[in-house]
Amino acid sequence: MIRRSALLASAATAAAPALAQDELNALVWCDHTDPALIEPFEEEHGVRVNLREYEGTGAALALLDQSRPGDWDVLVIDAIDVFRAAQAGILAPLPAEELPTGDFFPEVVLEANNSQDGETYAVTEKFGYNTISFNSDAVEPEAMTSLANAWSEDYAGRISIYDYYLPVMGLAAIAEGIPTGKIDADSLETISATLGTMRDRAASVAGVVAAQTALATGEVDIVVGGGEWLTAVLQEERPELTWTIPEEGAVLWAQSIGVLADSARKDLATEFVKYIVSPEGQARLATSSCFWGMPANREAGAHLSDAQKEILRWDAQEDYLSRAQLYPAPDEDLDIEMQDLWLDTLQR
Fold first, then answer.
1. Which domains does the chain show, CATH number per domain?
2. Could you give the CA distance from residue 163 to residue 225 in angstroms, rounded to a whole number?
3. How much is the mean pLDDT over the chain?
């Protein structure tokens, strides 16, 4: 779901947090900034958790480059980027035997992402789907059972495209029968044609807040690349704003959390990771005020209300996971080609 910027992306310079043994400093996504998630850990451990929100792995790496070693302790990161971060020596090994991954949805443990050479460097904490969000008062739900219908001529001018190339190009590939794991340079021509159709019929290409706003205000009726993370926080007041997984499937997003190798507070940072993936922490993270998503730990269900589980489509996860495909994971050369194609599409 959340953007993965190129690893050389820049970020605004920020003052590094002061080093203190009774504080923990974490680079996180916005769903970790909810006091309902953070305060229980602070109270239990008698510490203050300092949070810096960022968007895009490149921005996190830039912030780390601008900081002193040891300034930051915890990193939330797109699961697809853990392998690169571990190879770069940014993440410290975690005690895998202390993590409750046996209670996780098996499909989101993502060993290939989170581990290498027998060491675990991060753990999946939350997941969901880049798929189709829509206004069910303006769009027939039956029509959204097909990906191609989501950007058909029938909805020209009523569509927004989520502004992140990997999941949207993944959806374009799935629509054309190309598995996300098989995307290569030869398949980009087919994907390009589908992206062009999407863009020609879209009113906008938008980030998270802009896409939510466009859907909520009626500026658009469909968001390609949306999902539960886009509409779940709106459902209580706007139940007609919903999402679905078409017959062809969707793209699975997942976020991970790990301890930074330079942390001077690795024990406390590890306790924070363990709290986040505990059933209680998972339930709070899943229903964060910023955006909702499925908790990786199935035991979180005992701490969610029936209404919350209904919004998350808890009982449908087995079916959804069976039809979801992982984010495209291009090598450096293919990634450059994909980003170039995305920029060309945006400029149409």
1. 2-127+253-314 (3.40.190.10), 128-250+324-346 (3.40.190.10)
2. 8
3. 92
